[in-house]
Amino acid sequence: MVDVIEKKRNGGVLSKEEITFFVNGYTNETIPDYQASAFLMAIYFKGMTAEEQGHLTMAMVESGDQIDLSAIEGIKVDKHSTGGVGDTTTLILVPLVAACGVPVAKMSGRGLGHTGGTLDKLEAIDGFHIELTEGQFVKQVNDLKLAVIGQSGNLTPADKKLYSLRDVTATVDSIPLIASSIMSKKIAAGANAIVLDVKTGEGAFMKTEADAKALAESMVAIGKQVGRQTMAVLSDMSQPLGYAIGNSLEVIEAIETLKGNGPEDLTELCLVLGSKMIVAGGKADSVDEARDMLKAVIADGSALELFGKLIAAQGGDASIIHDTSSLPTAKYQIEVPALESGYVTKVEADDIGIAAMLLGAGRATKEDEIDLAVGIVLRKKIGDAVQKGEPLAIIHANTENVERSASLIQQHMVIGQQVVESPRLIGAMITG
Ligand code: URA
Ligand code: CA
Questions:
Q1: pLDDT digits (tens, 9 = 90+) for 126-155
Q2: DSSP character for 275?
Q3: Alpha-carbon distance 325 to 244, whole Å?
Q4: Are 144 and 309 in contact (CB under 8 A)?
Q5: Which residues are catalytic?
């Protein structure tokens, strides 16, 4: 291991054998934390070639179970978002893309941060369960074209161990390490093709467009190297996506979007990502054709109906697609007034996310319980005019004491005197 560390420290390019030796040794605890830490720091400073990243990814994939989706007919397409605030896209995309005939076998996670993950959001629906056996999962996707389950089995244990170590050794924000970490989980989950939504801006992991692009390019290069068709879209996360931030509130927003009444930005991002997924799934020849298909399944109600079938198949109350009143509802709805008149120039996503977390919408630690009912519904986004006293947002809370969240919202929904344009939602597309 000393030789491998030294080689990377000196800027050398590691072989597949050297990388696999490290990943296996660290996973089975024959390589200690101090050597792994030094090695990660060497990668942090010297980087990795696309080939090295491919080897690292596959070594992590092979450290645990891999899901075999071959019993599902068709090209299986997965989507991954690098995470943001109020990102409801998965809930919408799964039925939307499946309604166009692409099988979506989705394995999702719980959230750690501002709001819950897709699984938490789905559990806001009474009765919905995310535990299916592999056999039930495959059968449901063959029958209905869609299923959403929690991570089962022992997927990428090497990544779990390395991620914990990176967290305490200041080596999280290394692009080769992030790219291989994300791609290892997607590849182990078994899809043939992967569409990545790489967020950029204040509410994202990557704060600048240049970093987001570099991360996207790394992940696309890894996909190419290991034989999974991969493409990436850069999207804005300087302000939250849509208006709703919170679990139950985002389910309602997803249903509205599937009905064609969703927020413009959220709808557009779903159309962009969804068209890529449909082309990757071989159901359309061009993104324009795919976009028309998506609009058609929104307009004729079939995407919404399929969402209802997904809910029913997994034990949930499907009546919510027509009447959301049985979803958890917060006791209080409290307006957050603007302190001056002008134009909204910023809606700083990370701080708005913290305001939602303080209400109980997210977890600070893995053990925290989420309050599925609470959250924030924005009334204004960047570029909107606002009058003093008019609500900037509505807080949905189970306590009347929402001072801290309200003041965070007032502080971070910045009002100026000059009108500003809303940020560009979709950035570069990277297809390799
Ligand atoms: N998300 C991941 O899954 N891995 C990283 O390294 C960073 C973010
Ligand atoms: Ca939202």
A1: 999 999 998 999 999 999 999 999 887 789
A2: H
A3: 16
A4: yes
A5: 80, 159, 166, 181, 185
In single-letter form, the type of residue at position 345 comes to T
Ligand 1 atom closest to 177 (CA): 6
Cα separation, 32 vs 72, whole angstroms: 41
The answer to whether 9 and 42 have CB atoms below 8 angstroms apart is: yes
Decide: 178 in ligand 1 pocket, CB within 6 A. yes
Nearest-angstrom CA–CA distance, 112 and 365: 7
User: Could you identify the atom of ligand 1 that is nearest to the CA of residue 172?
Assistant: 6
> 220 CA to middle of ligand 1, Å?
15
Question: Residues 97-115: pLDDT tens digits?
Answer: 999 999 999 998 777 677 7
Helix (H, G, I), strand (E, B) or coil at 413: strand
Mutate to test the pocket of ligand 1, among 182, 207, 222 (most ligand atoms within 8 A of CB): 182
Q: Do 323 and 393 form a contact (C-beta atoms < 8 A)? A: no
Start-to-end CA distance of the chain, whole Å, equals 34
What atom of ligand 1 comes closest to residue 185's alpha carbon?
A: 3
**SS3 labels along 223-241:** HHHHCCEEEEEEEECCCCC
Rg of the chain over all Cα atoms, to the nearest angstrom: 22
* Predicted structure pTM score: 0.95
Ligand nearest to the CA of 246: 2
| Longest alpha-carbon distance in the chain | 65
- Other Cβ atoms less than 10 A from the Cβ of 261: the count is 11
